[in-house]
Design brief:
Number of domains: 2
Distance between the termini: 25 Å
Domain Glycosyltransferase subfamily 4-like N-terminal: 13-117
CATH topology of the largest domain: Rossmann fold
CATH architecture of the largest domain: 3-Layer(aba) Sandwich
Domain Glycosyl transferase family: 166-292
GO molecular function: glycosyltransferase activity
Helix content: 40-55%
Strand order of the largest sheet: 9-8-7-10-11-12
Strand content: 5-15%
Protein name: Glycosyltransferase family 4 protein
Shape: globular
């Protein structure tokens, strides 16, 4: 069950929608009957039921967003009640609340996206007996106590959206929204200290405008370039030709798809030991981890130890759609079996 705002697969922005598409396609190719409930314009080799018109995308951020979302989810769950699905997979709190309150006989699996707080812990622990929860990293799951998790599955990248290059140009890249917790100012310091040009790619939200104007913009020039919007082939080439991706994050990030996409392109990641980076980066194989800027500067000198072909292969093994589908199929089977035993 997808959110009602963007089609499956998304034409531009839509991280959850892309994950749903990759998972549904992979499950279908394995011989499962897959139905995706979502927005008009959704397509795939699987069954698609479009309950939300494409015009609803324009309602995001308006007063109509929440009532439209509720109307869509109520209709979707009424459909679930009528159809003999073995399992339903959801991706947001409102959908989970509706499913739990309706007492549906169909097992509900819900992927929890994003970082988690004390409030999230309260909600998730209140609902985890009725909805079977899956996290996206061990780091994310450690953010909340007292929650019953049924599994953890890493997000997949889209293999069609990356290119692998063993030939590198003389620059490093950081692909992330511009913010203090993503720490582009530290990436600039690392770039200066190792003498390698840097490309920063990411949007600046209004809340981070001051950070950008005081700590990033003054350093832009010949050695530090900023691209606000990058996508498609341009993004794939940017990642593939970089010597390394810098990820000096200063928060407990629950995942990091940009790191995965870089590694899948044969580009090693240099990241601080925070959040899911510790799980995603395999030191000496797909990059290096360090505690601070000094450690990342030192790690830059070891990039020659990385087998770039193996870096890409390892990322495809760990974070391709097939691996994601393996994880969710395991959760599905366990939950269906528990219902049949009851």
């Amino acid at each position: 069950m997808a959110p009602p705002w963007y089609p499956i697969p998304p034409e531009g922005y839509g991280g959850i929608e892309l994950l749903i598409y990759l998972l549904a396609q992979e499950l279908h190719e394995r011989g499962n009957h897959v139905t995706v409930i979502g927005s008009q314009g959704s397509r795939g080799d699987f069954e698609v039921i479009s309950l939300a018109p494409s015009s609803w995308e324009e309602k995001l951020g308006t007063r109509d967003q929440e009532p439209l979302n509720l109307a869509y989810l109520l209709e979707a769950h009424d459909l679930v009640r009528l159809r003999a699905f073995d399992i339903v997979h959801e991706h947001n709190y409102t959908a989970m609340t509706i499913a739990a309150s309706m007492g549906l006989p169909t097992p509900i699996v819900a992927t929890i996206h994003g970082d988690l707080t004390e409030g999230d812990a309260r909600f998730l622990s209140a609902i985890d007996s009725k909805v079977h929860l899956a996290g996206i990293s061990e780091a994310q799951q450690r953010q909340v106590a007292g929650v019953r998790w049924r599994g953890m599955v890493y997000n997949a990248f889209d293999p069609a959206a990356v290119e692998v290059s063993l030939e590198k140009d003389d620059y490093m890249v950081q692909l992330a929204r511009i913010s203090r917790d993503k720490a582009q100012h530290l990436a600039i310091e690392i770039s200066r200290r190792v003498g390698c040009p840097l490309v920063l790619a990411g949007k600046v939200d209004d809340a981070e405008r001051e950070y950008f104007e005081t700590e990033i913009q003054p350093h832009l020039g010949e050695s530090v370039n900023w691209i606000e919007n990058v996508a498609g082939q341009e993004k794939a080439r940017l990642l593939a030709r970089a010597k390394a991706m810098l990820f000096p994050i200063q928060w407990e990030e629950p995942f990091g798809i940009a790191m995965v996409e870089a590694m899948a392109s044969g580009t090693p990641v240099l990241a601080t030991e925070r959040g899911a980076a510790v799980e995603l980066v395999e030191p000496g194989v797909t990059g290096f981890l360090a505690r601070d800027v000094d450690g990342l500067v030192e790690a830059y000198g070891k990039l020659g130890e990385i087998d770039l072909r193996r870096c890409a292969e390892r990322a495809h093994e760990r974070f391709g759609p097939a691996r994601m589908a393996d994880g969710y199929e395991s959760i599905y089977r366990a939950e269906v079996a528990s219902v049949r035993r009851a």
